Amino acid sequence: MSEQLIQLDGIDGGEGFSFGKTAEDYAKYRDIYPDSFYKTLLGYQIGTAGQTVLDLATGSGVLPRKMNPYGAKWTGADISEEQIKMAKELSKNLCIEYIVCPADVIPLPDNSFDAVTACQCFWYFPEKTALPEIRRVLKKGGRFAILFMMPLAAESDIVRKSEELVLKYNPSWSGAGYKRTKPAKRSWDGELFQSIELVDYTENLEFTRESWCGRMKSCRGIGASLTPELVDQYDREHFNALTEIAGETLSIPHQCIFEIYSAI
Description:
There is one protein chain. By secondary structure, this protein is an alpha/beta fold. It has 8 helices and 7 strands. Strands 3-2-1-4-5-7-6 form a 7-stranded mixed sheet. Strand 1, helix 3 and strand 2 form a beta-alpha-beta unit. Helix 1 runs parallel beside helix 4, helix 6 runs antiparallel to helix 8 and helix 7 packs antiparallel against helix 8. The longest helix has 18 residues.
C-alpha cells in the first residue's frame, strides 16, 4: 500500500511528508483533546443528535469517535489509507463511516451534511479547490468548523526543548515556535461562508513523559517525515532529555481555537 506524500509551499520548505507513516503512533498518542473541546463544538450546534457531520483529515477518527455518543451520524475522511485503516479499527463498535479522499475531491452528494469539521489540518488544504467542495457537500446554513489546538512553545520550557530536538533531526520543519494568536476572519469570509464566531481559550493538558514523547514522535516533523531509524533515535534522545528537566507528569499549555462558519 503506497502512501501519497504531501508537499506544500511554505510548510517544511516544501519537503514531502505522509501521516500514513506514523499512523500507529498517531492512533496511540494523538487522542489528546480535552472535554472542553468537544463541549465547545456542541455549544455551536455541531455534532448534536440527528445531524450528519463530515470530519475532514480525520486521521485516526478522534473527533468522530469522541463525539459519537452525542447522537450525530459521522463520516470521517482522510487522504491516508493507513490512517483510515487505524480509524476503522478503533471504531469497530461505533456507527461511523470512513472514506479515503482529499479535502478538495469528496466523493459524496451535494447538500449531504449539517456540519463539516477540519481539526488540526486546514493549513494542508488547497483553499481554492477545497472551500467550494466543502460548501458543495454542506447544506445551506450548515456549519463549517476550523479547529486548532496548539502547544504554546513561548510559554513552556518543555515544548521548547522538544521542538529544539525536532529541528535537530529535521531542520526543515516549520512547526516550531507557535505563539499565542488571536483568531481573525479569513480573506474568503463572506463568499461561500459567513463567520459566526471566532473564539479561543487556553487549557493546560496533562501528559506523562511517554505520552508527550509519543505526541511529538507522531508529529509531521518526525514520524511523518523521517526514516524509522531516525524516528527511534529522536524518541530515545527526547525521552532522556525530558528526564533531566521534568517529572513524570507534564503540564503543557495549549491554545484552543475555533473558527465557526455558516454555509451561505
